[in-house]
């Protein structure tokens, strides 16, 4: 994994998969993200060392800290996607752009966007 963005993408993917199915496997993550199984293996090793995931040999589980972090990233994604859609961006582009923006937008800017989206 090259960047924090990559780690966040893996955590978000594991979160979404764990919400859809009972067990998350490396191959599921590889398919969803579009990377090779060895790339997932390397990422999981880093995420395990960081305390964000645990593995039992076959399955990947988010730790409490990993789940919190993944949920924060996914929440940012959802808010940014809704913001872009409110501006008239088509849903597919809004989703793709939100995936990039969630990693780089400052907390202050995100909070302003969040207030706008929630009508506060």
Task: Itemize the secondary structure elements and their pairings.
Elements: H1 4-20, H2 26-33, H3 37-49, E1 53-55, E2 60-62, H4 64-86, H5 91-101, H6 107-118
Antiparallel strand pairs: 1-2
The gist of it:
This protein has 120 residues and is mainly α.
Describe the overall structure.
With about 120 residues, this protein is mainly alpha-helical. It has 2 domains: about 5-70, Winged helix-like DNA-binding domain superfamily/Winged helix DNA-binding domain (Arc Repressor Mutant, subunit A), CATH 1.10.10.10; about 75-120, Iron dependent repressor, metal binding and dimerisation domain (Diphtheria Toxin Repressor, domain 2, Orthogonal Bundle), CATH 1.10.60. It has helices at about 5-20, 25-35, 35-50, 65-85, 90-100, 105-120; strands at about 55, 60. The protein has a two-stranded antiparallel sheet with strand order 1-2. The relative contact order is 0.13.
Please report the number of helical segments.
6
SSE-based structural type: mainly alpha
Per CATH, the architecture of the largest domain is Orthogonal Bundle
Q: Low-confidence stretches at least 5 residues in length (pLDDT < 50)? A: none
CATH class of the largest domain: Mainly Alpha
Number of strands: 2
Note the main attributes of this structure.
2 domains; two-stranded antiparallel sheet; 120 residues; Diphtheria Toxin Repressor, domain 2; Arc Repressor Mutant, subunit A; 70% helix
């Amino acid at each position: 994994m090259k960047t924090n963005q990559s780690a966040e993408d893996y955590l978000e993917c594991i979160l979404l998969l764990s919400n859809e199915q009972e067990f998350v496997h490396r191959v599921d993550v590889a398919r969803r993200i579009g990377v090779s199984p060895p790339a997932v293996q390397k990422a999981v090793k880093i995420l395990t060392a960081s305390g964000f995931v645990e593995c039992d040999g076959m399955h990947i589980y988010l730790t409490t800290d990993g789940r919190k972090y993944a949920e924060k990233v996914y929440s940012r994604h959802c808010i940014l996607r809704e913001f872009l859609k409110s501006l008239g961006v088509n849903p597919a582009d809004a989703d793709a752009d939100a995936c990039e923006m969630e990693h780089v937008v400052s907390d202050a800017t995100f909070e302003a966007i969040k207030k706008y989206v929630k009508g506060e």
